[in-house]
Write a structure and sequence with these properties.
mainly alpha, about 0% strand, single chain
Length: about 80
């Protein structure tokens, strides 16, 4: 348990952020799985969007995002956009 008021607040904030981060991470993973199961241009666009959002928020590293986007793009034999 937190001892100080600031530690208690930090714990509350951390819990709220964890919920948001989990939601963004889950949506990205779902989009990636859908793309692997049945590749299409629409699903590729959706997956790119979700991955970019997760990277922008710092939930995944930018190089991890780039690697995942590259692997998804190879499924459609399309050059990824930067």
């Amino acid at each position: 348990m937190p001892v100080t008021k600031s530690a208690a607040k930090a714990l509350r904030v951390s819990k709220r952020k964890a919920v948001v981060n989990q939601r963004v991470r889950s949506r990205a993973k779902t989009a990636i799985k859908q793309m692997f199961n049945s590749p299409s241009a629409d699903k590729l666009s959706e997956a790119f969007s979700r991955i970019d959002k997760a990277a922008k928020l710092g939930i995944i590293h930018k190089n991890t995002a780039a690697r995942r986007k590259s692997r998804l793009a190879k499924l459609l034999k399309v050059e990824p956009t930067k």
